[in-house]
Design a protein that fits this description.
Length: 455
């Protein structure tokens, strides 16, 4: 950042006072000088320390300062009056910087996962923290190799996360209406304390089912649905989380997700439904693993992330085995089925990826619209990237394509659900004692029949 020139630029672009600009530029310089000494420490919430002094963000570097690229994650729940104006300021800031990712703004705040050149990523984080609405922003920074996202999207949303019925009627911006956050060390102590007392901890995994497959806290059941947006918000909550039925009166209910936003928002809904003694993991799993390290006492597997890395702690096997053979999956990354009309997101070992040509089943290997096999796993490009002159019509999206995709998914859903159920029963981790139908038909439905679509 360049002194007087930067101050004038900030004043012209964002209309904030010159005194505030000078303060922000000076603070950013001081933080940059101090940050290299903070390697290995998680970021801290804004507040008051034990000595009464004011605390602010501490950037976490998971790699050395020589890293050129970084991934940044944060969310901030706050009432925003003019979302469109706020979003335009963010677009103007980012348009001349090498950033890619997802930045969502809504009347309830901001949710961002993005990356790029490290200096650009940190400049944007500084900018967001300087905005009056986002004072006290808590964020994390991790080094990476190259861009972790394909493109940049800054969007105005009705709500920050997808949930049945939306979240506009939930008091998510009021901290007193959300669950009580626990630091990673407090979280671990509470789990171990209940285990010593002979009680099974009540752990709610508030994520997608395929995230649980990559890694989860020991004792947490697989989410009732594969897609978080289908998590019940009114009727069926106790069916989705059987642990709530089994909890003793006054027993703590521990909720966790990747970064914390899904827990914070879903906890407001649970409070409205009359559930008490709710606790969330501050900063989510990502913060826990940074703080506690490779902790196998209460954590099992790797961590699924929503960028092109697909997982962190990749050297650890996934918590569940390969979809085909049940063997260990290292690195613990998911792939999408090569059949474009299936696109199921699943764990697959290297040998089975080659054997089934990146497909989830033998049936999919004979599909009409097969994309090239993924040699190293990961995600596919957009559909039109695989069209050629001879087969262009086959790759267009139309009513015929949508109908074929619906039929294909209907044939595969229950078969996949049966396989997942068999794996869970084999591990003794079934979320409920329900039986599954033995035959798969196009018209059959099941609570577990929602196929995972990602990519």
């Amino acid at each position: 950042m360049g002194g007087e020139e930067d101050v004038k630029r900030w004043v012209n672009l964002w209309g904030i006072g010159e005194a505030r600009c000078v303060e922000t530029v000076a603070a950013a310089k001081a933080m940059r000088a101090f940050a290299p000494r903070l390697v290995g420490h998680p970021c801290a919430r804004e507040g008051r320390g034990v000595d009464g002094t004011r605390t602010r963000n501490v950037r976490f570097r998971c790699t050395a300062e020589r890293e050129e690229y970084a991934v940044v994650n944060f969310y901030h729940l706050v009432d925003l009056e003019d979302v469109s104006q706020e979003a335009e300021l963010h677009r103007r800031f980012c348009e001349k910087r090498d950033l890619r990712g997802r930045i969502y703004l809504s009347p309830q705040g901001i949710n961002a996962q993005f990356g790029g050149k490290k200096e650009d990523a940190l400049d944007y984080a500084d900018f967001v923290e300087s905005r009056p609405s986002f004072r006290g922003l808590r964020y994390s920074v991790e080094g990476c190799e190259g861009h972790a996202f394909p493109r940049l999207a800054i969007r105005e949303k009705e709500w920050l996360i997808p949930l049945q019925g939306g979240t506009m009627d939930l008091p998510v911006t009021d901290p007193s209406r959300r669950a009580t956050p626990l630091s990673p060390s407090e979280w671990k102590r509470m789990i171990q304390h209940q285990e010593r007392d002979g009680r099974k901890p009540v752990l709610l995994d508030v994520r997608n089912g395929y995230e649980w497959d990559a890694g989860h806290f020991r004792g947490a059941s697989r989410p009732f649905v594969d897609v978080f947006r289908e998590t019940p918000t009114t009727e069926g909550i106790e069916e989705a989380f059987p642990e709530l039925k089994e909890a003793e009166e006054g027993q703590p209910i521990l909720m966790y997700c990747t970064g914390g936003i899904r827990c914070d928002i879903y906890s407001t809904m649970l409070k409205q439904q009359g559930f008490d003694h709710l606790y969330t993991l501050e900063g989510g799993i990502a913060n826990y693993l940074r703080d506690q390290g490779d902790d196998e006492e209460v954590w099992n597997g790797s961590l699924y992330v929503f960028d092109q890395r697909l997982a962190t702690y990749r050297d650890k096997p996934a918590a569940t085995g390969c979809h085909h053979c049940g063997g260990p999956v290292v690195p613990a990354t998911h792939i999408n089925c090569a059949n474009a009309d299936c696109n199921w997101h699943f764990l697959c070992c290297r040998e089975c990826r080659e054997k089934f040509h990146s497909c989830c089943s033998t049936e999919c290997t004979h599909a009409d619209r097969l994309r090239p096999a993924l040699e190293r796993g990961g995600r596919y490009e957009r559909l039109h990237e695989y069209a050629d002159d001879s087969s262009e019509d086959r790759w267009q999206r139309g009513e015929g394509t949508r109908r074929r995709r619906r039929q294909w998914r209907a044939r595969l859903r229950l078969r996949r659900a049966q396989k997942v159920a068999d794996q869970l029963h084999g591990l003794g981790l079934s979320p409920s004692g329900e039986s599954f139908p033995s035959k798969v038909g196009d018209q059959e439905t099941s609570a577990y029949s929602t196929g995972t679509r990602h990519g």
